[in-house]
């Protein structure tokens, strides 16, 4: 844990300086304690004046100890502040490179907590916890070693007591750790449920569900309460075991000192001095026990930080030169792609398809067939388990993520808008675009009528996650972004589902008119959208069961034709050749 924390700070030189000063400080403390033995022995001897040089030694050691403690504190602060600066950057950098599929709601809550509080917690850990912990770990061993020179049997007993006491501490910590991790998990789940409760209020109130009894949040509260009680309860046996070990060590050391006194190997003054040293020998273990809960927290914080920093990142495959898209290649090619959310279950089970430049492919299929998953794989929100996704001639895993994203215009069902102006939200599609280009994209995406209606026009803030806009309006902002980006491959997930027919027609027209060379892959439910596609791919249970043009698939009279007729009946729609 100590090394992990120092590594996170990323400043090797500062860590070495800190470790050296800390070692020096611990040696000086041990030396000061052990100097009590000759000092007291001289003081109670026939010539008490002999104690004077030892008082000078003690004073020098104490003064040097203070000075080194001061330097250790300074070095600890330097590392702590370095870590505070460094960690947030490392976490944000990693979060931007983690596949989107990693972000379950539990991990999102964890990441939020990690980003907002870990830097401070670890900085405080270094400045307030690390120094006393290392001191407390090293001091007894040094005192034990020093006692070997005073009276070797006593030194041996002290050195034997070190693993015994550390073992007792470890055992009580182990119980606490188990209880702590279930408490942590229960707290994380509760935090998630609270967010869910806030978000699902409309649905819950509509259903008349206002109490917590028998609900997910009620169960999460009960679990957290039980975990808290277990955490408190498990502290007690730990304390008992540690208390017993401390008493046993104290008794063993005191008995050895007295035996040495009785046998004449130590004089009375030396026995008194040694007993004082023995008491100081036990003290660091008590300090460790007191620090244990805080150290436990620090361990939890480190685990949360590493859960993010060690998460898989979307890095391009290592190579000498940057992979750039090929103009002559197909816009998209899936080669026997397999992928599953759960091990052993393929959501996408061997999909192959090609989308040529300048063409539109409609992906059609029943709910749960894997259509959205397929789009997520193309955008590399997840990595395929087997097979490959090629965008403009290269495997998506070989691209630098920024280059890959530059190739894709994405309009998904879930449109994320930032709490910024409408203008800024559209501009996100291409931050380098001119004002005229931004306005043109907005007009093509049928945003003008919204802009006129909003109180501050373009400058109106759209609210957190775009809540002040309707679903169809949010989708139009997303389409405007995609138009502005004008990427060679457009991925649309039922992008027009929330639009009325007039808007849809205008937007599809705009999408088709810009970028003649652009390829489009669209998850389509509307018959009009399917009918316009150059190629239709019918997906079922993660497999392409039929593909071809509309006339070809209707002539085949298979799964797609059945699906088409069903929807025609539902929509009162008939295709006239
Ligand atoms: P729809 O038309 O209803 O949107 P779809 O064809 O787009 O469906 P997907 O959303 O790709 O289907 O889902 C395919 C399967 O994968 C479904 O069984 C779904 O429950 C499952 N699935 C989707 N996302 C996840 C996820 N994040 N974790 C686990 N399973 C998932």
From TrEMBL:
E.C. designation(s): 3.6.3.-
SMART domains the record matches: AAA
Main subcellular location of this protein, as a coarse class: membrane
**SUPFAM superfamilies xref list:** ABC transporter transmembrane region, P-loop containing nucleoside triphosphate hydrolases
| Highest taxon, organism lineage | Bacteria
Provide the Gene Ontology terms for cellular component. plasma membrane
Which Pfam family, any one, appears in the UniProt record? ABC_tran
User: How does the protein associate with the membrane?
Assistant: Multi-pass membrane protein
Give the protein's recorded name: ATP-binding cassette subfamily B protein IrtB
